[in-house]
């Protein structure tokens, strides 16, 4: 039996991995890792690993460039997931394969553009602008007044952080960084939509492996050159590759797997507003890891976004 996408089956999910030597697509060959985990907790864990991975990958932008570091991370992630899941493509319809390709393109664009944004903007600001993508999905899928109100409250938080904020103490917001952040927002919206569809037609994390392979190919024109230059001029290229491989586990393998598990259970609307916690998580990680401090107006914006996320989660459970 395959894992199905059930948007209205509650707020818990099982995290499963294939047992050694058994096909990942067979339900009986999977083993449980712990008891059922609440889906909102999966989302929070995914957000922390995403932001921690971004923070730890920033030192790699210097020697490898944003494109090179992102390309290598996605490539390592694709190799890891393909080895673990061994996806079977034979017998797949063109529509199923097309959905996997679209998710790969959305994931690649989101990862590259968000990396470009955090290279030029405070992490909390970049993550908040990127949240415009999930917010647009939340508005599009709203069916009750309460969901619309929570989404509008989150939009007010975005305005406080980006329009009325102080640029994270930098005296202004970098235009290129803003363009990257808004582009990442568009890709994030597409990523949410296609993640649910991929989870419905592929078993386990096979669709995720396919999408990362597509993403690696899509990022190759932007990353092969900078990556080759960085590795060829590095004093210890093997250590640099090891660092990239380690970051690839934090971003994107683990968080994307957690998010795909969560969105199968939560549904796109609740999931889209729930991830509004990401600006707060990003600001916290940016402060602790990178020493980035936000102003009072920006903190008020984060508070609005967090309140919207909590409210959407509670109304979603009811």
- Average of per-residue pLDDT values: 77
Q: In terms of structural class, how would the helical and strand content be classed?
A: mainly alpha
The fraction of residues assigned to DSSP E strands is: under 5%
**Rg:** 19 Å
Please provide the ordered H/E string of secondary-structure elements.
Answer: EEEEHHHHHHHHHHH
Q: Largest sheet, if any?
A: 2 strands, antiparallel
Oligomerization status of the protein chains: single chain
The total of beta strands comes to: 4
Q: What is the helix fraction of residues, given as a range?
A: over 70%
Taking pLDDT < 50 over at least 5 consecutive residues as the criterion, the unreliable ranges are: 1-35, 167-171
Strand order of the largest sheet: 1-4
Structure description:
- It is a single chain.
- With 318 residues, the chain is mainly alpha-helical.
- The protein has a two-stranded antiparallel ribbon.
- The chain is globular.
- It starts with 11 loop residues before the first strand and ends with a helix.
- The N terminus is likely disordered.
